[in-house]
Amino acid sequence: MSHGNTSGASLLKQPKAVWAVAFACVVAFMGIGLVDPILPAIAAELKASPTETEFLFTSYLVITGLAMFFTSWVSSRIGAKKTLLIGLAVIVVFAAAAGLSGDVGTIIGFRAGWGLGNALFISTALATIVGAASGGTSSAIILYEAALGLGLAIGPLAGGLLGSVSWRGPFFGTAVLMAIGFVAIVTLLKTSPDDEKPARTPLSAPFRALARPALAILAATAVFYNFGFFVLLAYTPFALVPLGISSAISLGLVFFGWGVAVAVSSVWLAPLLTARMRRTRVIWTILPILAVDMVVIALLIHSAVGIIIGVVVGGLLLGIMNTVLTESVMEATDLPRSVASSAYSGVRFLGGAVAPPVASLLAANIAEPAPFIAGAIAFVVAVVIVVLGQRKLGAIDVEEAPVAQAQAIGLGDAA
After folding, report:
1. What transmembrane ranges does the database entry give (predicted)?
2. Fold (topology level) of 9-412
């Protein structure tokens, strides 16, 4: 991705509204990895099995995915600011409720509500930043990527620090931070009447979009890609516990490393690769390397150091794939970008929702390395889908405009 010649000085000279939304973005993306370090603690304290605990991811991702199909319809009727605020308010309520819960089933339910708020917020935030940022679209893109990367990296670390006090800590921490974000957006984000009367998107638009061959191929690829992604993110804490890495803070540090790797590669490595290779070739190259990484983790299942290195290397590769896949979705069709993003993101999150409990069941019923082998197979299936469908994907190798990149990252990269 080309970010133009935006200087650091102009990047930092933004209206307060942009900083308010960017702050809330960081917290929203923290929510993805926040529960990772406390999964073993929740399982132990609430007498829950690993599979039951993994549904903390599944309920969140299922509802986020389903809601994504409808967010463009909602925001095109009530406006971006109201959509952002409703999303934040829903997260505050359900994150706090999860922290007050006494059993894992209740937390799973409240995480689902959290997913609804997250879908409303993240699907609207990028468009808001692009509209309000000074210094052009390239400044907005860099800011949003920075917020996304920061959230993915800080989420597990915050989860580890707060979780070392109590497993309830990360839930209450999120509620407080999102409440601050809510107040910031209410007071700092001013909207004009035109902003609040956008063109209305039909309810059926994201579903019709999936009938387009190019988008259907990329969505199918994303289902299997995201399965592998969430095997790595959601199951690995349970693989590390028998090896002596079980405290919330130590798991938080492992996944802080993973998040930093995702952030660095999505912001810097992906653009370097796409400047030199066609996007389809980047996908064909990175997915098989991801599969190899998962096989290596499976082979080193009894080595804490081996697993941790595999996780961080996986983060570097996943960051590249996140950016390249979502850019590809934006270029694959002539559909409005918000519609293409809604359709793709909905399917993608649903693919990720399946992985955590399936991984846990494979480990319990077959062997400890089985989840990582399944993740490797999923990455191979994803690359096969892209190779077989390459004739329909010619448009994704055409150079794109910066605004397309911004919107691509806005919805697709949030998984």
Report:
1. 17-35, 55-74, 86-108, 114-134, 141-165, 171-189, 210-235, 247-270, 282-301, 307-325, 346-366, 372-389
2. Growth Hormone; Chain: A; (1.20.1250)
